[in-house]
Amino acid sequence: MAQILAPNMQCQMKLSKSLTNSMIPNSWTSILLKGSQKGSIKCSTKFKVCAALKTEHGTVNRMEQLLNLDVTPFTDKIIAEYIWIGGSGIDLRSKSRTLSRPVEDPSELPKWNYDGSSTGQAPGEDSEVILYPQAIFKDPFRGGNNILVICDAYTPAGEPIPTNKRHKAAEIFSNPKVASEVPWFGIEQEYTLLQPNVQWPLGWPVGAYPGPQGPYYCGVGADKSFGRDISDAHYKACLYAGINISGTNGEVMPGQWEFQVGPSVGIEAGDHIWCARYLLERITEQAGVVLTLDPKPIEGDWNGAGCHTNYSTKTMREDGGFEVIKKAILNLSLRHKEHISAYGEGNERRLTGKHETADIDTFSWGVANRGCSIRVGRDTEKEGKGYMEDRRPASNMDPYVVTGLLAESTLLWEPTLEAEALAAQRLSLNV
């Protein structure tokens, strides 16, 4: 069987008829990776191994056949993709293992290990890090009973490693005072798509700028929307996986998109965001496009990328909840520095007081004001109950850290009476 390895670049080769006839037997046909022009090869932006045999069904891509092969009728075994967060606190890692049968709960899964010295999470002389399975999602890439497994990481002695932020968040959400309030989170994950090699936003002229912001937000058209196929593919992959994705849209800066996850309860919010990020990384990998969660990928008069976090508790959602929301805002104002320090790297480049952000050094809140640290919706004000939106988190924030900190600051932490009174006066909050 003849094979062709197409390199990771955009290219096009013309094969002359004589060259084709002299080098390829009559039983073989030319390979069309893209397009329909006879005698041409168009290479996609990813590696493809193709084997072409002329049959009554036309060209057959054997690699695609194997990738899409359904093994369910032949074996009970499944593939589990163990996923964890690497040493930077934002990079995702994964590896696969075979399980003897389908599983439904993380407790059925074995612990595993990896080389922490290769991820910046352990020294070479004691490199073993243990993976604890925590959440299961269906695998949209392999299909069938195959699964994705969100894990957190521990030392062999059972201690969470420093980059394991899930452990502390799980402790916060298991606190009876927090659990009884059934905290809901709706997280708006913004991200930017970049052209490979040049690290410049998708759809932008290389080394130059598109027209100013305005027509791109939720825009339609080849000159306004760049990367819609990636956004849609990710949307469907999330639904298939069982992620609680609630929507998606094109963002203000061209080449930038957003998806929303929630409402999710407690630790589930972090699990779902991390799995959704993994799916997005895999999809952009296949598309040959680079994904960045940098909070300000392009300097100048361009919007940054955030991860706005909508939050409510049971008492906020009940009658009289607006007063509870204002008390929570007061607590957040007193812990502003603690939250900012945990809300993502490079966030100072984004929180400038411009482009729908508040200044990083000043805490503020307002109704329907996207230039504040905390925004309260018109409906919440009108109905006297609802939720609030923390607009400070950067696109590269850790959702375990942000959700856990919001619950801790508003449900477990109590300010002194003096600090509370001063903050209420400064923020014009009557609590």
TrEMBL record:
Q: What is this protein called?
A: Glutamine synthetase
Q: Which PANTHER family match?
A: GLUTAMINE SYNTHETASE, GLUTAMINE SYNTHETASE, CHLOROPLASTIC_MITOCHONDRIAL
Q: Cite a GO CC annotation.
A: chloroplast
GO biological process annotation, one example: glutamine biosynthetic process
- UniProt source species: Beta vulgaris subsp. vulgaris
GS catalytic domain sequence ranges: 162-431
Q: Which reaction does it catalyse?
A: L-glutamate + NH4(+) + ATP = L-glutamine + ADP + phosphate + H(+)
Q: Which SMART domains match?
A: Gln-synt_C
State which Enzyme Commission number(s) the record gives.
6.3.1.2
